[in-house]
Design brief:
single chain; Rossmann fold; 7-stranded parallel beta sheet; about 15% strand
Length: about 240
């Protein structure tokens, strides 16, 4: 982890002083959420596979007079998640907001045609890594006065032909988050999901290569929903919010 400047200001935004971890933060929805959270005064921990792309996001955050802790990592190396949990505990003693955004499309193919290796990779990224995040950060979310967990699902979570492992992983993610929400219902923690709908991302381009990207909304257009679910005032729990 690269450490933030201890003199950076928290600001007066809606997330001022809140410690927030965002996965898949280097591009697309994760990047948009990171920038919006920075504008709202959050202390950010940003994770993604590519260090260079994370540093580009950090450059934009620095232009706001802020700085983030960067964690370049493949979250399917689950020991990284455990180390992140230990580092956050040591530095802050709590986590106020967890945004599980990192995801992998895999390939669009009939279920019987997807390779075991690709199946395992998609399930590991979209489902198991998010379970490991809950496992590692649940105590830190409970240590917050208003822990908030937000995960990203998809409109294909109910099942769609040829979306194979991706659809299965998102359906299972929804069940997992709703289960977690039920378990924390009597605590200050709240856990919800966002279905972003058609959004201009690299994954969307991969799934719909012939689509004009200008016909779908930019990721910045849904960042407000993440802020709303991250705020201490949010009372929703176990819900799927559609953009």
């Amino acid at each position: 982890m690269s450490e933030p400047d201890p003199n950076s200001r928290s600001g007066d935004g809606r997330l001022a002083g809140r410690v927030a971890l965002i996965t898949g933060a280097s591009r697309g929805i994760g990047r948009a959420v990171a920038l919006r959270f920075a504008q709202e005064g959050a202390d950010l921990i940003l994770s993604a596979r590519t260090q260079g792309a994370l540093e580009e996001v950090d450059d934009e955050i620095r232009q706001m007079g802020r700085q983030a802790t960067l964690v370049p990592a493949d979250l399917t190396d689950y020991t990284v998640i455990d180390r992140m949990g230990a580092a956050v505990y040591e530095r802050w003693g709590r986590l106020d907001v967890l945004v599980g955004n990192a995801g992998l499309l895999g390939v669009l193919t009939p279920l019987g045609h997807i390779s075991p290796e690709m199946w395992d990779q998609v399930i590991a990224t979209n489902l198991t890594a998010n379970w490991r995040l809950i496992r590692s950060f649940d105590p830190l979310l409970r240590a917050s006065d208003a822990g908030r967990a937000v995960f990203v699902t998809s409109g294909v979570s109910g099942g769609r032909a040829y979306w194979s492992a991706y659809a299965v992983s998102k359906g299972a993610l929804e069940t997992m988050v709703k289960t977690y929400a039920a378990e924390v219902a009597k605590t200050p923690v709240r856990a919800n999901l966002i279905n972003p709908g058609a959004t201009r991302t690299r994954m969307r381009t991969q799934a719909f290569p012939g689509e004009n990207p200008d016909t779908v909304k930019a990721p910045e257009g849904i960042a407000e929903l993440f802020v709303q679910l991250a705020e201490p005032a949010c009372t929703l729990n176990g819900e799927i919010v559609t953009a």
